[in-house]
């Protein structure tokens, strides 16, 4: 009997907790069982039941060139027979590091790892080792992966599963993390002053993508930059989502604010496991085996397959016109969604920065975590299933982004707008 998502899910739950290898996929916010997918090609993915969807999850951001990008696939075919991992340096790691440093000038040196979590965890440890200070500030609703220090009022799957302050994180660890509302400089100032001699770093998603998309308010990033410069606090931009997404140089290029360190992931691996942290040479020179020897390591760090995919990805993104195309497609999609919202009178809010966007089922402006949590999640769940019926796969949680790729065609956008209108009618 042919496998279905349902039968695969039943089998998966026997051996994999919740049947998923990441809770973001568990459909916790929308009910029902997760879809299992067999293949992706361009803008479309096909599930185990043979249903095809236009995909806006894009593996949570990496697939800015779509699924099975021919250029990346061909490059991987060329290298895979030369070996998959050596646990020793390879020339392709230098190629990707050169590209990252060229496209993100604030990164003078970069260390490759195998996930965004590793990148952010390592960046904070380095900031602590470099400054000799203990505390880190993060923002309510931001998600920086699942390292203990970040699981305090965290976003993304921590929100979806209702555990923004995760069990298993000790009080000792939690006491070294302070939080403030995103886009609230006044509160940041207050909390910074209360902790200024202990704060090693402020880590921020310069464009929040894990409580839904929330752009920085005018002056917010500039204010963080000023405060951290004045007090010798390391400013870390977590650009795991926004890096190479909203501009070749990420959010720091878009908003003209230069952090001390940047964390990357997703897009730089072209769909393979990757992360990276980098920044000022003065700071990076304290990571082991250099300087203060802040410990950090990884068996598959700089893996030649992930590096090869990343090199092809970034070379493609450097080509003229890519970001103009992404902006045109995303703007057309957003305009169609706005028109649908207007015709239903629902008054829902759309936040968009370039090719990342979220529709919140609320009439309020969404500028922070509290406002995002005020959106109608039941309405979102009905919307999600309505979009699926229309052949469109958006993230199974409002606390995520919809991503437009270079291969979402005009016809895809039109079909998505039509499905969106029908889904709203059922909300
Ligand atoms: P990973 O460890 O999942 O590669 O990256 C962690 C991370 C760090 N920083 C930001 C800004 C991120 O968005 C992420 C991971 N994003 C989530 C979804 N928004 C990944 C999906 C999942 O957890 O399954």
Task: Tell me what the structure shows.
- With 427 residues, this protein is an alpha/beta fold.
- The chain has two domains: 3-68 and 321-425, Aspartate Aminotransferase, domain 1 (Alpha-Beta Complex); 70-317, Aspartate Aminotransferase, domain 2 (3-Layer(aba) Sandwich).
- The chain contains 15 helices and 14 strands.
- It has helices at residues 5-15, 70-80, 91-103, 116-131, 156-160, 171-175, 185-195, 220-231, 250-255, 281-284, 304-317, 322-344, 369-373, 377-389, 410-425; strands spanning 37-41, 44-47, 52-55, 109-113, 135-139, 177-180, 199-204, 234-238, 261-265, 275-279, 349-353, 356-360, 392-393, 402-403.
- The chain has a seven-stranded mixed sheet, sandwiched between helices. A four-stranded mixed sheet has the order 1-2-3-13. A three-stranded antiparallel sheet has the order 11-12-14, with helices on one face.
- Ligand KE4 binds next to helix 4 and helix 5.
The SS-based structural class is: alpha/beta
- As residue ranges, the low-confidence spans are none
* CATH-assigned fold name of the largest domain: Aspartate Aminotransferase, domain 2
Mean pLDDT: 97
Helix content: 25-40%
Largest sheet: 7 strands, mixed
- Report the span from N to C terminus: 35 Å
Q: From the coordinates shown, what is the CATH architecture of the largest domain?
A: 3-Layer(aba) Sandwich
Major β-sheet strand ordering: 4-10-9-8-7-5-6
* Distinct ligands: ligand KE4
The portion of residues forming beta strands comes to: 5-15%
| Tally of separate domains | 2
Order of helices and strands: HEEEHHEHEHHEHEHEHEEHHHEEHHEEH
Give the CATH superfamily of the largest domain: Type I PLP-dependent aspartate aminotransferase-like (Major domain)
């Amino acid at each position: 009997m042919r496998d279905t998502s349902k039968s695969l899910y039943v089998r998966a739950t026997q051996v994999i907790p919740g049947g998923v290898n990441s809770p973001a996929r568990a459909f916790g916010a929308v009910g029902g069982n997760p879809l299992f997918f067999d293949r992706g090609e361009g803008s479309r993915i096909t599930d185990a039941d043979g249903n095809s969807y236009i995909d806006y999850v894009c593996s949570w951001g990496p697939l800015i060139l779509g699924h099975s990008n021919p250029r990346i696939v061909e490059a991987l075919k060329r290298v895979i027979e030369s070996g998959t991992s050596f646990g020793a340096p390879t020339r392709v790691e230098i190629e990707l590091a050169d590209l990252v440093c060229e496209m993100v000038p604030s990164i003078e040196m970069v260390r490759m790892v195998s996930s965004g979590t590793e990148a952010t965890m390592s960046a904070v440890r380095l900031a602590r080792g470099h400054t000799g200070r203990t505390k880190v500030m993060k923002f309510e609703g931001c998600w920086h992966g699942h390292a203990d220090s970040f699981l305090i009022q965290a976003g993304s799957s921590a929100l979806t599963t209702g555990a923004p302050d995760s069990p298993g994180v000790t009080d000792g660890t939690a006491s070294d993390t302070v939080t403030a509302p995103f886009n609230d400089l006044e509160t940041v100032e207050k909390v910074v002053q209360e902790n200024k001699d202990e704060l090693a770093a402020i880590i921020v998603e310069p464009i929040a993508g894990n409580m839904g998309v929330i752009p920085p308010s005018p002056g917010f990033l500039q204010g963080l930059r000023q405060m951290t410069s004045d007090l010798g606090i390391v400013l870390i931009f977590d650009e795991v989502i926004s890096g190479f997404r909203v501009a070749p140089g990420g959010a720091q290029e878009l908003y003209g604010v230069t952090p001390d360190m940047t964390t990357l992931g997703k897009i730089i691996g072209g769909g393979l496991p990757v992360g990276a942290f980098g920044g000022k040479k003065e700071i990076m020179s304290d990571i082991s085996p250099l300087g203060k020897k802040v410990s950090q390591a990884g068996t598959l760090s700089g893996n030649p397959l992930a590096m090869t995919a990343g090199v092809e990805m970034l070379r493609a993104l450097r080509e003229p016109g890519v970001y103009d195309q992404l902006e045109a497609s995303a703007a057309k999609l957003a305009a169609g969604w706005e028109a649908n919202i207007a015709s239903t009178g629902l008054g829902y809010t759309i936040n968009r920065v370039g090719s990342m966007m979220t529709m919140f089922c609320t009439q309020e402006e969404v500028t922070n975590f509290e406002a995002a949590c005020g959106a109608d999640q039941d309405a979102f769940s009905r919307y999600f299933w309505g979009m699926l019926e229309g052949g469109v796969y958006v993230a199974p949680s409002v606390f995520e982004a919809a991503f437009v790729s270079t291969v979402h065609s005009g016809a895809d956008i039109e079909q998505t707008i039509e499905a969106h209108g029908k889904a709203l009618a059922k909300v």
